[in-house]
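In full, the data:

***
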Amino acid sequence: MTVRSVMSKHAFIVLVIAIACASVGVQPASAGEFDEFGIESVAASGSSTLAGIHADLTTSISLNHHTSETGLPVSATVLEDVKLDLPPGLVGNATNFPTCSNGEFLAFANCPVESQIGIVEVLLTNFEAPFIEPIYNLEPAQENDGVARFGFFGGFYIPVFINATVRTGKTSNDYGVTATVDNSSGRGALLAATTTIWGVPADPVHDSQRLNALEVLSGCTNPCFEPDGERASGLPDEEPFLTNPSACQAMEIGFSVTTYQLPGTIATAHAGMESITGCESLDFQPTLDVQPTNQRAGAPTGLDATVHIPQVEEADEPATSTMRAAKVVLPQGMTINPSAANGLEACSDEQVGFGEETQSECPDASKLGEATIISPALPEPLHGAVYQRTPAPGNQFRLWLVTDEFGFHVKLPGVIHTDKATGQLTTEFLDTPQLPVEEVDLRIFGGDDAPLKNPDACGTYQTSFEFTPWSGNPPAVGQSPMTIDRGCGSAGFNPRLDAGVTNPVAGAFTPIVLNVLRSDGEENLSGLKIDLPRGLLAKLKGVGICPETSAASGACPDNSKIGSVFASVGAGPEPLGIPQPGKSPTAVYLAGPYKGAPYSVIAKVPAQAGPFDLGNVVVRSALKVDPETAQATVESDPLPQFVEGVPALYRTIHVAIDRPEFAINPTNCEPMSVEATVNSAEGAVAHPSDRFQVGACGDLGFKPRLSLRLRGKTERTGFPALHAVYAPRPGDANLKDLTLRLPRSEFIEQGHFRTICTRVQFASGAGNGAGCPEGSVYGHIRAYTPLLDKPLEGPVYLRSSSHNLPDVVLALRGQVDAEVAVRIDSLKGGLQARIEDAPDVPISRAILTMRGGQKGLFVNSRDICAHTYRARLGLEAHNGRAAEGRPALQARCPREHRHRHQGHKHRGRR
């Protein structure tokens, strides 16, 4: 957002003309004589060097020529085109003066005297003395076609038309004025011309130079015409025509001519002028008014912005300085609205025709707003547009300010800087044209997909501006207040959660889907924690792990991909969906340990929308597994609130974990829930949840096997070691409860309870028994699961409990950690071990080994080889199925007892 300085061929003209006039008696020339063609000398000067002053401008050009046998100046060539490139900022205002109509001009002597804006003195071939001709302000060739025309007669009734254009070509994009005579008459030859354009045409000092074309030819002596007395301008006021630049700069005028005899040959020369002085005296007092098109807090909005630069237009006063640069800083909280990228296109340098004097062809979908420019030098306002410019690396938000009216083409590039931490916007236009502008009205479109978003709270906000003049004086600074006074009540923070699986069959593989939704206007999301239902697990076996060196960038290998993400962001009813069709896909990857969790999840979202590419947004989440319940919890890092200065206004976060045979359902069909803890950017916390339940639990069987073997001494008072193997069938429901009552042949030996780990010690350090003393280890556990590449294994501890005997705790360690507490009770009938509410996790096999001897917890109450002793086993699965068994206590007995044990080896093993 800035001021766009514009001008038209009709408006800003300095007529410094070398004209082609007719001559008579041109002798035929040989081809060799054409080599004479060229510029002999040029000169330029102004009647004042003061900045902004309305000074006369005089230019002269002399072409190479020779003297004929009759003593008259002659040239072998005839001019085709004459062009003068004026210094940038040296401009004129033709609208202050009457025009001479085409009919009046072609009537040779009928142009009104008040349309004269200067004189030209031309020397023609075969004429001893120059002609002094009036230069008139002519009406455009077509009404309001932007072609500003001036004219005079080049002797012998030959009209000469001068067109003024604004330079926007590749070699000169300074928006200076070029005056051109195109395709001049071939019936004569110009040898020299001196042109004076009046700074204030109505100034009485010029009265003696006012004449008409017919008077030039009357009584042609040496010189051909001397005005007879003085003639008033006929203008009511002394209005300025020419204005010196407002920049204290060096001045130079470029001359170029071509001839019909040498097509393609261009002769050029440059005339230096005195540098502009006194810039510090120029006035420059711009103001800015900026208002949102929507005054609702947090809503999408456009902008209405008006820049007003009061103009000094007195003939005897220096003009207002032109604007060189404009910087506008919008209030903090007014940010880019991501929704605006929906369907937005960009306009490239080629499409806008940057550096070309051509009509811009920006796509309609790149248009952001409209512009109206009022200049004191224009008969009516200019109309233009604001377009999204093609982003560049490191500079995504760029603008074009374009107008193609009045026959010239202005394409001003601008840039929007975003504060990466706050999103505050600063718009800049640099090195704008040195052209007078009184007012610029910009309207940035509003609506549901407006490019801006209002601050979230009501109040009065200030837009700051800094406008720099070409004069070199300090910038003009100020503020423009805006008021946000609608929708002031807080919308609160009430996000919703939709979560579940697409294949809700117990024990089956299934994709997991998760949706967190925030309504427009609510506080923005800043963090998520999702507690999955118990038993909803993942098969990590065979899944690649994103290397730690790639985790921050999200450049993870495909074999670690487990899903994808969809997000919608932005204010208003039409948030932007990412990824958009044709853009880079999103991905969710499995990564290694993070923040104390055994695994982590990396979500990569390419921030690509419309013409923008803000890079990848990578959010890492710790994947925690509760060691007692195996319940999985995903806790994200803080969600980015700004991406390259664009607010991430989360409306929907949709995660799909859909790697084949990755996620697996629980075998428990009881109603459960997915629980979430959602934090807002303002500190609020919400706890949305969604019901979760799978079915078809009755289709799962439950027939596990348990074998028990005692090793070591078998006689009474012996302390045997225990070797137990639990082996369920694949595809069965998972174990929930286990009760094992040993036969009366085995009792607990409390005298061996030498070292017991406290609960504090068990949880200390890395947890899972890492802080327990070595002496509290009484065995070893190893468990195999189809979900992991390697078995989990670890020590078996005695840990203090709240009942009479300590617990036996199985500390499983590996890709994840788990702990299973076994409650030990000494009953009248023997020893009982019980596992309650075991994790809903599939187990292929579990092997428990308890030490014997002096570390043995069991003591034989009788000779275990004298008889076959059986335990009582009660099992319950998570699907509610139950199983019972009478596994025998197997032992390595002496030969005389072996046949008895072997004979009962297979009884009751279920």
